[in-house]
Amino acid sequence: MILVYGPTLCEAKHRQTRVVRFPTRLRFIINTMRHLHIDPKLFIQNRDRLKARLMPGSLTFVNANDILPTNADGTLLMQPNSDLFYLTGIEQEESVLALFPDHPDESMREILFLREPNEHLKVWEGHKHSREQAISISGIRNIKWLSALPTLIRQLMCDADHVYLNSNEHKRAVVEVESRDARFINHLRAHYPLHQYHRLSRIMHQIRSVKSDVELNLLNRAISVTKKGFERVAKATRQGVTEYELEAEFIHEFTRNRCKFSYNPIIAAGENSCILHYNQNDQTLKNGDLLLLDVGANYANYNADLTRTIPVSGKFTARQRAVYEAVLRVQKASIAGAVVGKLHKDWFKESQEMMNQELLQLGLIEQKDIDDQKPSEPACRKYFMHGLGHVLGLDVHDVGLMHEPFAPGWVLTVEPGIYIPKEGFGIRLENNILVTENGPMDLMADIAIEPDDIEALMAQ
Ligand code: GLY
Ligand code: MN
Ligand code: MN
Predict the structure, then answer these.
(1) Ligand 1 contact via 415 beta carbon (within 6 Å)
(2) What atom in ligand 1 is closest to the CA of residue 430?
(3) I need a surface site. Which of 10, 58, 223, 274 has the fewest CB within 10 A?
(4) What is the pTM of this model?
């Protein structure tokens, strides 16, 4: 049992002043999620940010993700829908949010539809949110069961002029499976063909780009657990250990700290460190190898994204150290360069120019390669063939407006690398930073990165 909050909560800072009253009996609730309870102010504020951007007479729906099938009757664990979580804090399957900010009937302005708990579900699947719990998580007062959805869709649609519907518009997404949101769109368009439909994702990308203080606290918790995991693994790294044993060390630290993996961890020794999306994690470590660890903890759906490259023996060779220091210089300069107003493409180009010079010093390219390079194919791409970084948040490669200048509140990864298969190693270093008015803030500044600090950590 955890103390959640008292009977009233004032939300005065935003567009409208609102007072949300919670019944006193909600003072204590059972925490049904792995992470600690989050003050629903976060989700109330997030909904206010969305409402401020909708046209008058607008209705919007956001659906949970499907539980995806595997083989036979198997399923994957459900991945909460990031937009639904951002707007409600709800992670339960089949949930639907309806927002109609200027509906004349106040009770219709925010409705959350949930699976109705029953004895059968309780036996087979366990706990489902009660109305009271859903209110305490989301701050939404009007909780309905899914059986009411068809009737209420009709009522809401008949009063709406504009309907915003959600879809995955991440530029790099490969969408081959129809989502619940996609099925919902098909249903509405078939039954209400004369409405004006709009894309919710444009607005979601805008508002999710700028992280609030509460979101940053959640992300910082994910980062601090990632640090614990990394330090545990650095101390356990030695010749003869396998990549999957180190994966288990991360799981140990993440799970006991209420976290999951942000993504399948990359634990890549020796030549595997040159495989950008390596995820077999099944090889044995050897002295002389480098070990690339690209791993992050996910806390309350917020993702950390760390990369460190460490020597299996505990000591870098002179050559490994020289390449490592080159990557570190590019990373430090790129962190310093992530200032308000910078365009992502310019930031990336600056890093490529620095990398060209580093590769020249390392003898990996020649001046002629730089002189002859095409703008679209800088010389460094032979050894640094991926991007410099991405926005980070509820998704690892988060949604955001990447053509717009960096703005305060953006969180970015900074992850240059040099991969030299013919020398049997690759080095990537990745930190997570916050763009602020006063310059970039390194959220991973306390995770060892200097080669001497890495060696000292491994010697412990
Ligand atoms: N691990 C995913 C990335 O670094 O982008
Ligand atoms: Mn990463
Ligand atoms: Mn990354």
Answers:
(1) yes
(2) 4
(3) 10
(4) 0.92
